[in-house]
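can u do me a favor
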């Protein structure tokens, strides 16, 4: 009985999936305003994007040649549910200032972020996080139970 041993086939590397735009720092122009969108904290077991990564993404966005804003454009920071402290808000302010942009307003659903932003002198709009209730539908044809 003869067995043939074949040489191992080279393993081709899997293509890297494109980055999820919702998981990155982005600038967006909307209704004459410049929005700075921070990625939301992921749901489930995935850990949130660390501050160091978020900071690096912001620096890359500001350093890229894709500047579509005018000098001293007011920036509205959409922090969503991301927790930011006073030092982090100051770092964002300083980075924007260096790029000749002005942080004016912070939108957040986190009370701690709202307090830090107000303390730093920014206009704040706090949104209540949206929660979806899981309700099991009642069976059709069955009357509801008496209260």
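np, heres the sequence
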């Amino acid at each position: 009985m003869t067995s043939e041993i074949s040489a191992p086939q080279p393993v081709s590397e899997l293509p890297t999936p494109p980055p999820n735009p919702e998981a990155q720092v982005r600038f967006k122009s909307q209704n004459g305003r410049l929005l700075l969108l921070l990625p939301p904290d992921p749901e489930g077991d995935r850990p949130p994007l660390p501050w160091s990564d978020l900071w690096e993404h912001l620096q890359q966005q500001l350093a890229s040649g894709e500047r579509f804003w005018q000098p001293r454009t007011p920036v509205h920071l959409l922090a969503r549910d991301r927790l930011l402290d006073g030092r982090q808000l100051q770092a964002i302010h300083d980075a924007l200032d260096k790029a000749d942009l002005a942080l004016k307003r912070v939108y957040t659903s986190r009370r701690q972020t709202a307090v830090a932003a107000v303390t730093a002198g920014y206009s704040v709009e706090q949104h209540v996080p949206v929660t979806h209730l899981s309700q099991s539908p009642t069976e059709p044809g069955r009357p509801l139970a008496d209260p």
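The beta strands are 26-30, 33-37, 73-80, 101-108, 123-126. hope that helps!!
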